[in-house]
Amino acid sequence: MTEPNVLALENQVCFALTVAARTTVALYKPILEPLGLTHPQYLVMLALWEENPRTLRSLADALRLEPATLSPLLKRLEATGHIRRERSATDERALQVTLTEHGRRLRQIAETIPERVARSLEMPTESLIALRDSLNEVIRATTTAAR
Amino acid sequence: MTEPNVLALENQVCFALTVAARTTVALYKPILEPLGLTHPQYLVMLALWEENPRTLRSLADALRLEPATLSPLLKRLEATGHIRRERSATDERALQVTLTEHGRRLRQIAETIPERVARSLEMPTESLIALRDSLNEVIRATTTAAR
DNA sequence: TCATAATAGTTAGTGTACTAACGAATTCGG
DNA sequence: CCGAATTCGTTAGTACACTAACTATTATGA
């Protein structure tokens, strides 16, 4: 019995994690391109389809992103006509993000995306749900540890 | 029984995947900082500790990165004294990457990292192995689909 | 009330990661 | 053996994602 190599690239969860994230995002690229969206922008749209006018801070919390990361991302979404950015009337500090008519309409097309992606992953639905739950466990552990 | 929202952010595997990758990489940051390494640079070192003089192309294949991504990354690793970059004697096109004495020595310190990270994830080893295997399944599906 | 603290975004700078276009070296077919 | 195709890296340009430092606004408390 040989000593397992704890430093072997293929044994690292973090390596599998970063590669899987990259290749999965790449899978979305040709699907999202016709909608004029990148993958992070698509996640912003998902958050807005759930709750429509919401602040940058609210989006940053939901997406687990820093406001500084989201800021230029939202400017691009405004430039492509998906959203409007305007100061909140009640709190001048807050940036209110609102879907445009175009942005709202895109939802219908987007509704077919999850199934198309799941199909190309060629994994049973239960496996994908188990994977998602396992990833959420990782997220919980990593974000509480960072406190 | 309500219709499950297929577009809900929390239901997306791709969202869990990107967040988990980001938060896990963030976990490595304070650990790798004393070694003068970022996380992608650490992965390069893992690949080099497995096989020492190897070409940029070989590294790119092992790390699943484009040569264009790896190129500036290797220049930084050379600037920090972890590796040497030189043309192969047998094929002038190939860039041979070799660990420096410092780079080789770092391996001993690095050997404690996987256990430290696994501990802070607070997940049983079998769960982590299952997660890694599941991620590798995703990688296989996404990369063969891209052919 | 008025200085101070907290909160919301923005900007600047660093480091991946990708595609596309390119130059240089090698290989291969005729 | 010589021109075309292939292969190997590099460069340029775009887009995230982060930290740190900053402005502006609102809330707090002596």
Automatic annotation (TrEMBL), chains A, B:
<keyword id="KW-0238">DNA-binding</keyword>
<dbReference type="InterPro" id="IPR000835">
    <property type="entry name" value="HTH_MarR-typ"/>
</dbReference>
<dbReference type="Pfam" id="PF22381">
    <property type="entry name" value="Staph_reg_Sar_Rot"/>
</dbReference>
<feature type="domain" description="HTH marR-type">
    <location>
        <begin position="10"/>
        <end position="140"/>
    </location>
</feature>
<keyword id="KW-0805">Transcription regulation</keyword>
<dbReference type="InterPro" id="IPR055166">
    <property type="entry name" value="Transc_reg_Sar_Rot_HTH"/>
</dbReference>
<dbReference type="GO" id="GO:0005737">
    <property type="term" value="C:cytoplasm"/>
</dbReference>
<dbReference type="GO" id="GO:0006950">
    <property type="term" value="P:response to stress"/>
</dbReference>
<dbReference type="InterPro" id="IPR036390">
    <property type="entry name" value="WH_DNA-bd_sf"/>
</dbReference>
<keyword id="KW-0804">Transcription</keyword>
<dbReference type="GO" id="GO:0003700">
    <property type="term" value="F:DNA-binding transcription factor activity"/>
</dbReference>
<keyword id="KW-0963">Cytoplasm</keyword>
<dbReference type="GO" id="GO:0003677">
    <property type="term" value="F:DNA binding"/>
</dbReference>
<dbReference type="InterPro" id="IPR039422">
    <property type="entry name" value="MarR/SlyA-like"/>
</dbReference>
<dbReference type="InterPro" id="IPR036388">
    <property type="entry name" value="WH-like_DNA-bd_sf"/>
</dbReference>
<protein>
    <submittedName>
        <fullName>MarR family transcriptional regulator</fullName>
    </submittedName>
</protein>
